[in-house]
Amino acid sequence: MTLFSMLKRNSKLALKGNWGRAVMATMIPVLINLLLAVLLQVLPSVLVTIPMSRLPTVEPNQTEIMRFLSAFAQAGGPRLILLCVFIALSWLVFAPIQLGTVRWFYCLVHGRSLPLGEVFYFFERFRAYRRGVWYQ
Fold first, then answer.
1. 29-65: per-residue pLDDT in tens?
2. Dist CA 108 CA 61 (whole Å)
3. d(CA 73, CA 85)
4. How far apart are CA 99 and CA 109, in angstroms?
5. CA angle 38-102-109, nearest 5°?
6. pLDDT at site 95
7. Rounded CA gap, 23 and 75, in Å?
8. 122: closest CA among 100, 93, 91?
9. What does the pLDDT read at residue 40?
């Protein structure tokens, strides 16, 4: 028996009767990542572009802070800050969920059938959450 056929047989045995839950366990991180991506596309226009477009134009009698804000807005600075915030947020949310999904599949392979909510295992306690973020 080749390695590939043995892996395929073992995978089918582990997923026997759990295909629907396995698909849902895989879709949870995908849907959360999709939600964060949509928010990253929508929020800059709502939070940054519209309010910054209302700033007055740069005139000689303006203060230095208004010149800086206007130049910063025209250079795309707020979008860059928002992008950095979203990268950090997605890492803080997505890392524990990804590890929880891996943990759920490992338990399934070892014969323990856990509920689907165990994907969020690393959010239950701060110590587990910190460990989940640190490992990722």
1. 889 888 888 887 777 666 655 555 555 555 555 566 6
2. 68
3. 17
4. 15
5. 140
6. 86
7. 43
8. 100
9. 76
Residue ranges, the chain, pLDDT below 70: 44-79, 136
Cβ neighbours of residue 27 under 8 Å, at least 6 residues apart?
none
Nearest to 98 by CA among 119, 83, 112: 119
**Structural tokens at position 66:** 């208004």
**The two structure tokens encoding residue 129:** 């959450």
Number of Cβ within a 10 Å radius of residue 98: 19
For residue 112, report the phi and psi dihedrals to the nearest 5 degrees: -95, 125
* Measured distance between the N- and C-terminal CA atoms of the chain, rounded to whole angstroms: 35
Task: State the pTM of this model.
Answer: 0.65
Chain-centre distance of CA 57, in angstroms? 37
Task: For residue 87, give Cα distances in angstroms to 50, 55, 60, 114, 135.
Answer: 22, 27, 37, 30, 17
Residue with tokens 């698909």: 23
Residue with token string 């997505």: 94
Q: Write down the pLDDT at residue 49.
A: 58
